[in-house]
Structures are given as structure tokens and as C-alpha cells.
Amino acid sequence: MTADHPAAPRRLVLASASPARLGLLRQAGIEPEVIVSGVDEDKVHAPTPAELALALAEAKAAHVAARPEASGALVVGCDSVLELDGRALGKPADAAEATARWKDMRGRVGILQTGHCVYDTETKRYESATASTVVRFGEPSDEEIAAYVASGEPLHVAGAFTLDGRSAPFVDGIDGDPGNVIGLSLPLLRRLLARLDVRITDLWTV
């Protein structure tokens, strides 16, 4: 295409129902399509939290990439788990688990592991990696934890917390990419795209 008629941006499909991941992409000038993978996460296993996050991301990307409606698109799959004491902690099953989780996490340090996989359905190539961010939790009181759990938010996010919601005051600091904790590392996404010979600027739609 000529400079007067630039090529249309590549289609990007987000294989996730996460509004946080969608928001991060939109803030970066990318308007993805959303196709939820439907992968049964309980059937995916790996020896470490980082490897589990990566295996889940790869499974989600591959599952969506195989669908006809994703033909010709770049498919991004992500999955996050909190690593604490070597355990992989995803979304809590219920309010009781979320409460126990926060009482265990407060005053401690965990690692938020987010697997990323980009699958190019045109070339059938994919690249994947895990981003890690250290999270230093504050010490919310039992009353603050109860109020947070009652909000319902921790039931919908990996590790029962997020940086862009009501739990932000309970996180003293992080070491690493904040976007990774929210759900998607844009710097890592750029590097994975580059390995597939795609510039992230080619995806800008706004």
C-alpha cells in the first residue's frame, strides 16, 4: 500500500473475557475482537506456577486460533496465577477462600505470573513467554478484608486481588510491569509480536 493508502491494521483477537486485558489493549491504541476460549483450566497441569500460566495461555490461544472466525488474525491468549510459597493461586472459589487467601497474603511477598501466547493464524506460528512481577502486599485489617471480599471483586481475579480496583490500597508496591499484574504485559506482547515479524504499531486502530 502507498503512504496515501496505508494498509489496514492486522486483526487482533483476544482469547479472554477479561475486561482488564481488553482495557489495557484499548489504552495502547488496539481494538481487539474478543473470542473466549472455553478451555477447561482444571485439566491443564504444569510443575511450576510460571509453567502453568504459560500452558494455560498457550491452550487458550490455540483453542481460539483453530476457530474459523479467527482465520487470518493474530490471537493473544493470557492467563495469570499468583505464586505464593511455590503454589499457583488462581481465582478463589468462594468468599471464604478469598478471605483466607487475603489473611495468608497480607504482609507477604508473592509473584504474579502471567503467561502470554501470540498465535499467527496466517503463518501457523506462535510465540509464548511468561512475565513475572513481584507483589508486596500490605496488611489490611480483618474488617478491611471482609469489606473487600463483600464487594465481590476478588472472586473474579487471579490471586484474589488487582492493581486497578478496590484492592489497590492493600498492595504496598510491586517490582516489575504493573500491566502484567492487571492481566497483560504490553512490553512482552511487543516482543512476542516482533518474533512473529509483526510490529505492535501495525495493530493500532485508534
UniProtKB/TrEMBL annotation:
Listed GO biological process terms: nucleotide metabolic process
E.C. numbers: 3.6.1.9
Keyword terms: Cytoplasm, Hydrolase, Nucleotide metabolism
Known catalytic reactions: a ribonucleoside 5'-triphosphate + H2O = a ribonucleoside 5'-phosphate + diphosphate + H(+); a 2'-deoxyribonucleoside 5'-triphosphate + H2O = a 2'-deoxyribonucleoside 5'-phosphate + diphosphate + H(+)
Organism domain of life: Bacteria
One Gene Ontology MF term: nucleoside triphosphate diphosphatase activity
Matches recorded under SUPFAM superfamilies: ITPase-like
Cross-referenced InterPro entries: ITPase-like_fam, Maf-like
Main location: cytoplasm
Chain coiled-coil ranges: none
Cofactor(s) the protein needs: a divalent metal cation
A GO cellular component annotation in the UniProt record: cytoplasm
Catalytic residue positions: D79
Localization in the cell: Cytoplasm
Similarity comment: Belongs to the Maf family.
NCBIfam families xref list: maf (TIGR00172)
Xref: HAMAP family: Maf
Protein role: Nucleoside triphosphate pyrophosphatase. May have a dual role in cell division arrest and in preventing the incorporation of modified nucleotides into cellular nucleic acids.
Protein name per its UniProtKB record: Nucleoside triphosphate pyrophosphatase
